[in-house]
Design brief:
The structure is a homodimer. Chain A contains 7 helices and 2 strands. The first copy, chain A, has about 130 residues and is mainly α. Chain A has one domain: Winged helix-like DNA-binding domain superfamily/Winged helix DNA-binding domain (Arc Repressor Mutant, subunit A, Orthogonal Bundle). Chains A and B meet through helix 1, helix 3, helix 6 and helix 7 of A and helix 1, helix 3, helix 6 and helix 7 of B. The structure holds a DNA duplex (30 and 30 nucleotides).
Chain lengths: ~130, ~130
DNA sequence: ATACTGCGCAATCACATGGTTGCAAATTTT
DNA sequence: AAAATTTGCAACCATGTGATTGCGCAGTAT
C-alpha cells in the first residue's frame, strides 16, 4: 500500500483540463493530419484530399487541433495554411518523461514510504 | 505543395484503430490513474479514494485502460490488483519518435520531392 | 449461517464527438 | 460585374463518453 499523501500529490499534479495535446492526438485522423503537417503547411482542401472523410469533417478536426494549439492557421488571400506548432508536441514528451521517471523510481519510492512508516512506527499508523 | 504519393503513404501509415494507448491517455483522470499505478499496483477502491468521482466512475476508467491493454487485472481473493503494463506506453514513445523524425527531415523530404518533380518535368506533372 | 466487503454489470442521463448537408462570406478568376 | 473557388459556420444526426444509481455475485469475517 502506498502512503496517502504521495498518491494525492501524484493525482493533484497530473489532473489537467480538456482541450490539450492529449485530446488532439486521441483521434487517428488527427494523428495523421499532424504527421502530414509535420512535413509542411497545407490548406484544408489539400489535407482533405488524402482522407476518405469530407472536407468539412477534416475541417472540424482542424478546428479541434487549432483549439488545442497544435495547429496555427495563417490566412493568405482566400486560402488558409495550417502550420504545425511543434512546440506543443513537447507536452506529450514531457508527460512521458515524468511517467518514465516515476516508473523507474517506483522501488525507491516504496523504500521511502516504508522508511517513513518505520520511523513513525510508534505514532498513529496513517501518516 | 507536397507530392501526393508521399502524403498518401504518411496517411496510410498513421491511420490506426480506436482503443489504443492514445485513447487511454486522452482523459486526465486516466492519466492520473496511470501515474498512480506506475508507482505500484492498487485495487479499484484504493484508486477511487484519490479521486472525487465515484468508485464506479473510476471502475469504468479501469475498464477502458484494461481494454487498451494499459492495465492488467490480477485477481487475489475478492480483491483485484490492477497492474500497469508499462510496455504499452512505448507505443506513445514510438509515435512521438516517428513524428520527430518526420519533422526533423521535413526540409530534406521537400528537396526529394522537388528533385523528383524536376527530373520528371517533361512528363505529366502529377507524378 | 449470516452479515459485510470488494467489485463488476446493467440502466440511465447529459454531454461531447465525428460525420453529413447546406449555405454564406471572402477572394480570385474571367 | 459575374462566375468560380476556398473556406468557415450552423443545423442536424448517430454514436461514444463520463458519470451516477442500483443491484447482484463472489469472497471474507463474525
Amino acid at each position: 500500500m502506498i502512503a496517502q499523501y504521495i498518491c494525492n500529490q501524484i493525482v493533484a499534479n497530473f489532473m489537467e483540463t480538456r482541450r490539450d495535446v492529449f485530446q488532439a492526438i486521441a483521434d487517428p485522423t488527427r494523428r495523421a493530419i499532424i504527421m502530414l503537417l509535420a512535413v509542411g503547411a497545407m490548406t484544408p482542401n489539400a489535407i482533405a484530399t488524402h482522407f476518405d472523410s469530407s472536407r468539412q469533417a477534416v475541417s472540424k478536426h482542424l478546428l479541434v487541433l487549432t483549439e488545442c494549439e497544435v495547429l496555427k492557421p495563417q490566412q493568405q488571400g482566400r486560402e488558409i495554411h495550417y502550420h504545425l506548432n511543434a512546440e506543443k508536441m513537447k507536452d506529450i514528451e514531457k508527460w512521458l518523461e515524468e511517467f518514465k521517471q516515476l516508473f523507474a523510481q517506483r522501488f525507491s519510492q516504496l523504500d521511502t514510504v516504508l522508511a517513513l512508516l518505520k520511523a513513525k512506527k510508534n505514532e498513529s499508523g496513517s501518516i
